[in-house]
């Protein structure tokens, strides 16, 4: 690899190589697992239901995060960012857009599951399509703002990846952070928490748990919580006082979400798993359906 470029401040040769390798593994695993989820949906007719369209949309968002991670891995191995400052802005926008969309789809799936199991109503295509279109437009708005000066995209401490710059901690940053995190994380955490709480009560009543209702919230908070903590810490304290290595933990954890989500929502979903199996082996199996009313 090219070693003529100086190391970013606070990182040893070994750190840069290890972080680059982490990013590469995350990128490739996410690419493979979400690719499988996407292609199965497109190829297996029985999978193409409105509820599974939400899982498909989650995989589309997650494959975007995986692409972002793979580019970051590549430039980590190069030890410099080869795409210039326009490339940095584009990378920041693309990463933010897909990451925020992924968080929204986790909430959309939770809301849909609440209706499936608790109110026994089935999602309709028109509602699913409107919901997905709304999520992409809404997240495009929040990710475009730093491009026009509300918030700012800049290099991460490793200097091989671009995302929201938390280091300034000025009024512009704080005025963006607060509404952005309420509309793109706060509400979603509330929806996920309350939906799975109701589902958990329902499962206790019926004595037939179809999945572990506490896992989705734990996974969501585990992946995105550290980012939120770091971003809010940067609003009150100087983020440069946190060691660059420690600051890299949040984006690395966030980028594990495209690997975890397919296990929870596609392979871990009795409905979707059968379709993936059918796509991979060609063997047709009955996809279990829940008897529901229409919504
Ligand atoms: C800032 C921030 C958030 C969004 C973080 C995102 C979307 C990060 C994307 C990072 C990427 C793609 C990094 C690439 O290296 C949350 C979680 C909504 C909560 C509050 C603070």
Automatic annotation (TrEMBL):
Q: What are the annotated GO cellular component locations?
A: membrane
Q: Does the keyword Zinc apply?
A: no
| PROSITE patterns found in the cross-reference section | G_PROTEIN_RECEP_F1_2, OPSIN
| Domain G-protein coupled receptors family 1 profile, first and last residues per copy | 33-265
What keywords would UniProt list here?
A: Chromophore, Disulfide bond, G-protein coupled receptor, Membrane, Photoreceptor protein, Receptor, Retinal protein, Sensory transduction, Transducer, Transmembrane, Transmembrane helix, Vision
Q: Mind listing the GO molecular function terms for this protein? A: G protein-coupled receptor activity; photoreceptor activity
According to its UniProt entry, the function of this protein is described as: Receptor for all-trans- and 11-cis-retinal. Binds preferentially to the former and may catalyze the isomerization of the chromophore by a retinochrome-like mechanism.
Q: What is this protein called?
A: RPE-retinal G protein-coupled receptor
């Amino acid at each position: 690899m090219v070693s003529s470029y100086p190391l970013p401040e606070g990182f040893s040769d070994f750190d840069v190589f290890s972080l680059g390798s982490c990013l590469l593994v995350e990128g490739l695993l996410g690419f493979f697992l979400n690719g499988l989820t996407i292609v199965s949906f497109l190829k297996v007719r029985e999978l193409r239901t409105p509820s599974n369209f939400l899982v498909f949309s989650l995989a589309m968002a997650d494959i975007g995060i995986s692409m972002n991670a793979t580019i970051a891995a590549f430039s980590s191995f190069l030890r410099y960012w080869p795409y210039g400052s326009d490339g940095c802005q584009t990378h920041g926008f693309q990463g933010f857009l897909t990451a925020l969309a992924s968080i929204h789809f986790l909430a959309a799936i939770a809301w849909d599951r609440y209706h499936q199991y608790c109110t026994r109503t089935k999602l309709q295509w028109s509602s699913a399509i409107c919901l997905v279109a709304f999520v992409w437009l809404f997240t495009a708005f929040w990710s475009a703002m730093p491009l026009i000066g509300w918030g700012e995209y800049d290099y991460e401490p490793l200097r091989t990846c671009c995302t929201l710059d938390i280091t300034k901690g000025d009024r512009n940053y704080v005025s963006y952070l607060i509404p952005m995190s309420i509309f793109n994380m706060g509400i979603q955490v509330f929806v996920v928490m309350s939906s799975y709480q109701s589902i958990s009560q329902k499962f206790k009543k019926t004595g037939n748990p179809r999945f572990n209702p506490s896992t989705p919230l734990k996974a969501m908070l585990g992946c995105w919580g550290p980012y939120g903590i770091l971003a809010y810490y940067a609003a009150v304290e100087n983020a440069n006082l946190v060691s660059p290595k420690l600051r890299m933990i949040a984006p690395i954890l966030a980028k594990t979400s495209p690997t975890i989500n397919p296990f929870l929502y596609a392979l871990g979903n009795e409905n979707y798993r059968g379709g993936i199996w059918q796509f991979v082996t060609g063997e047709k199996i009955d996809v279990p359906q829940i008897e529901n009313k229409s919504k």
